[in-house]
Automatic annotation (TrEMBL):
Protein name: Probable molybdenum cofactor guanylyltransferase
This protein's UniProt keywords: Cytoplasm, GTP-binding, Magnesium, Metal-binding, Molybdenum cofactor biosynthesis, Nucleotide-binding, Transferase
GO cellular component: cytoplasm
Chain ranges of the MobA-like NTP transferase domain: 3-145
Molecular function GO terms recorded: GTP binding; metal ion binding; molybdenum cofactor guanylyltransferase activity
Annotated residues for binding of Mg(2+): 93
EC number: 2.7.7.77
Function recorded in the entry: Transfers a GMP moiety from GTP to Mo-molybdopterin (Mo-MPT) cofactor (Moco or molybdenum cofactor) to form Mo-molybdopterin guanine dinucleotide (Mo-MGD) cofactor.
Domain statement: The N-terminal domain determines nucleotide recognition and specific binding, while the C-terminal domain determines the specific binding to the target protein.
Cofactor(s) this protein cannot do without: Mg(2+)
Amino acid sequence: MIAAVLAGGKAKRFGEEKLLYKVSGKPLILHAIESVLKAEGIDEAVIVTSREKKEVFEELGFKVIVDELEIGPAGGVYTALRKLGDVFVIAGDMPSIKPKFVDYIIKRFYELRPLACVPKWENGYLEPLHAAYSKNFLKILEEQITKGRYMLNEAIRLSNSCYIEIEPLPKEWRESFFNVNTKSDLRKIRGSSRV
Ligand SMILES: Nc1nc2c(ncn2[C@@H]2O[C@H](COP(=O)(O)OP(=O)(O)OP(=O)(O)O)[C@@H](O)[C@H]2O)c(=O)[nH]1
Ligand SMILES: [Mg+2]
């Protein structure tokens, strides 16, 4: 399966291009890409970003596809499904991806063949940016986007999705969801074993 690495967005909370910000000597997004590529079920990583950032991300040596919508992560997933087919989606700002967790989700995805296979917390909160999507999810996503409804969670709940309960899984897998939104989030990774 291809990993679609979302890399559009404005990084307003961070204040500059966070995905190229060097963490332990390399761009934040490379931590995410290198980790997801360690999953056995992932053969390739493709970066999904806006037209203006295409070239800078190409310099990292990975295939880049352009998200023309710029409506947030839902547009990135839409672009990935249209251009790549089934994908495992991650956010480029997730430096602590656990390859075993990715493989666990991919395995369930191939067993159950849902439209999406998404981790879910006990309180109902979903983790849609660490999830497997079928190309058949495109139809409902497109309908939702056409209506101006850009919440991925909503499209997932309207679909025949498989939910992965997070609480019973190994606790350290939860680090996989950690994402860098502010400069102070960097303190949480520096000096720790996260990356
Ligand atoms: N392809 C694509 N990716 C996006 C888009 N918006 C956000 N992303 C990515 O989705 C992931 C989660 O984004 P957030 O951290 O919520 O948002 P952000 O825009 O990067 O930052 P803020 O402006 O601080 O909210 C990040 O990896 C972003 O790069 C978009 O419109 N298109
Ligand atoms: Mg984020």
